[in-house]
Amino acid sequence: MELRARVRGHVRELTALLTAVSLALVFGAALGAVPRTVLPRAPDAVFAVIPHVNAVISTVAIVTILLGVRAIRAGNWRRHRAFMLASLVLFVAFLALYLYKVSVQGPAPFPGPDTVYRFVYLPTLAVHVVLAIVCLPLLYYVALLALTRSVAELRRTAHARFGRIAAALWLVSFVLGNVVYAMLYLVY
Predict the structure, then answer these.
(1) Residue 49: Cβ-neighbour burial (10 angstroms; 0-12, 13-18, 19+)
(2) How far apart are CA 122 and CA 124, in angstroms?
(3) Which tens digits make up the pLDDT trace of 165-182?
(4) What is the pTM assigned to this prediction?
(5) What is the C-alpha separation between 135 and 19, in angstroms, rounded?
């Protein structure tokens, strides 16, 4: 049986598995569960540039998501698919860089005043993280549906309904991620 057909029959199960693995990687990295000696150590200049590269990736992803939404509203599913796949690739690149940096160096400390930390930074970070967590299974689900079905078949699935929710949450999460970046690396 070909891989596409296997995945097609198990979209929910694969969504759950991919979500669990992704969350385990993120929380494992953030909580220091990955031994820092296991990963190769890049030069400090690489670590210094990762947040800035990730901010650019996030910004480009915001644009590709918006263009993907615009394309599907115009009925152009080919452009929609291309933009949403580009968004997914950007997300994976962002996540790989983030996980590497956090696994080796730990989370970045907030350099600003304690009041801003408590009342602006932490709430913004919390909403960003919660949206990213909620968004993950939705993204996997709509992507797996799209990659395993024709356009005609896709119209008979929950792809559009969940896709609208996923795109909205994804956008807000990327925007808030850039706000967190600005507070960590530009404002303070």
Answers:
(1) middle
(2) 5
(3) 999 999 999 999 999 999
(4) 0.92
(5) 10
Tokens of 180: 């967190």
Structure tokens at 128: 């960003």
Mean pLDDT of 115-135: 96
Tokens 């933009």: give the residue: 83
DSSP 141: H
CATH of the domain at 54: 1.20.120
**In the block, residue with structure tokens 């996540």:** 95
* Number of domains present in the structure of the chain: 1
Distances (CA, A) of 64 to 54, 69, 76, 166: 15, 9, 14, 14
CB 176, CB 117: distance < 8 Å: no
- Burial per residue of 137-168, b for 16 or more beta-carbon CB atoms within 10 angstroms, e otherwise: bbbbbbbbbbebbeeeebeebebeebbeebbe
Quickly list H helices, 119-158: 122-148, 151-154
Question: Which residue from 144, 155, 136 is spatially nearest to 11, judged by alpha carbons?
Answer: 144
Token digits for 172?
């807000």
Mention every residue, 6+ apart, whose C-beta is less than 8 A from residue 27: 33
Q: Which residues fall within 8 angstroms of residue 187, CB to CB, at 6 or more apart?
A: 112
Domain of 13? 3-34+42-187
Model confidence pLDDT, tens digit, residues 19-39: 999 999 999 988 889 888 889
